[in-house]
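Ticket #4471: structure output looks truncated?

Reporter: J.K.
Steps to reproduce: submitted the chain below (186 residues) through the standard prediction queue, then opened the result file.
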Amino acid sequence: VSYKQVSCEAEGACAGVVNVRRVVIAVPPAVLASSINFDPPLPTDQIRQMRNTATWCGDWCKVIAVFKTPFWRYQKVSSIVQPRGGPISAWWEAAAGEEENEEVSALVGLGFGAEASAALAALGGHEDKESSDLKAFVLKSLGAAFGPIVDKELVATRSMCWINEPFTFAAGAGQPGRGYGHSLLR
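Returned output as attached by the reporter:
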């Protein structure tokens, strides 16, 4: 199958026809199969493989909590926390601020699965929007491990649930960890 022209019809992104020799599309295979139309169509086996390739980490969610200082280092305690309950399964140091010549001090929490993603998304705090619910969750989750210093040091919180992002997740029949690198995806 040969493609010599690329036609883009996306709001605000591009318009018209561009003549090219190659196109690199950097989205997960299942997202590609469910959101881009090819003319002529891609081979049936290739589309099937794309749809059956789960998005790597597609149902994961993340919280970042930014602090004034890396207080956990000053307390000489590990930044790794495994909270009991809630959408986040583990927290760890993502940045140590001036201690490591980094701009911020931050802990990151990671959750797994559609249920965790839905619970975290309900707390808000996406993109540039602060959320009192997300802040309260972070204070409870990390406060249980580190104590009241979390409230004194916390500067900002944000969250990301990839399952809610149209360019990083598409529901598919594939199992995570299977199908990546398949010859039909090259």
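Triage note (M.O.): checked the attachment and the full token line is present. The mean pLDDT is 83.
Status: closed, working as intended.
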